[in-house]
Design goal:
Blueprint: E1 3-7, E2 10-13, E3 18-25, E4 32-39, E5 46-52, E6 57-60, E7 68-73, E8 78-83, E9 92-100, H1 113-119, E10 122-123, E11 127-132
Parallel strand pairs: 2-11
Antiparallel strand pairs: 1-3, 3-8, 4-5, 4-9, 5-6, 7-8, 9-10, 9-11
């Protein structure tokens, strides 16, 4: 059974850093891409980053490029999202999700929550990130 456990959220001041962890079990990163998503109050869920060990793919949303880094620790079966230079606009619940076989999705235009759910079949619970100004 594919299981994902996100953790590492918290309260941080603007300009600060946090590292989110997505602990995985029941599958191999060789076969699954891992995505990080976030949903802010009153807003649609959006993809933040994705990593695929199988094809080496790594993607970032434009809003986080240069500030966030996604990585895999195979020994710990964990995917990390290192977040630097946090902004109040990064405040959201962050989720990790797993996509079987197809690597990170190629997204052009709007990427709805329904499409996200279709692409990523397994989701972890969220972890809250709050950035104060």
């Amino acid at each position: 059974e594919v299981q994902l456990q996100a953790s590492g959220g918290g309260l941080v001041q603007a300009g600060g850093s946090l590292r989110l962890s997505c602990a995985a079990s029941g599958f191999s990163f060789d076969d699954y891409a891992i995505g990080w998503f976030r949903q802010a109050p009153g807003k649609e869920r959006e993809e933040v980053s994705c990593i695929s060990k199988a094809d080496g793919g790594i993607d970032y949303a434009d809003s986080v490029k240069g500030r966030f880094t996604i990585s895999i620790d195979n020994a710990k079966n964990t995917v990390y999202l290192q977040m630097y230079s946090l902004e109040p606009e990064d405040t959201a619940v962050y989720y990790c999700a797993a996509r079987h076989w197809f690597g990170c999705p190629v997204v052009t235009g709007t990427y709805s929550a329904a499409e996200q759910d279709s692409d990523f079949g397994s989701w972890g619970q969220g972890t809250q990130v709050t950035v104060s100004s």
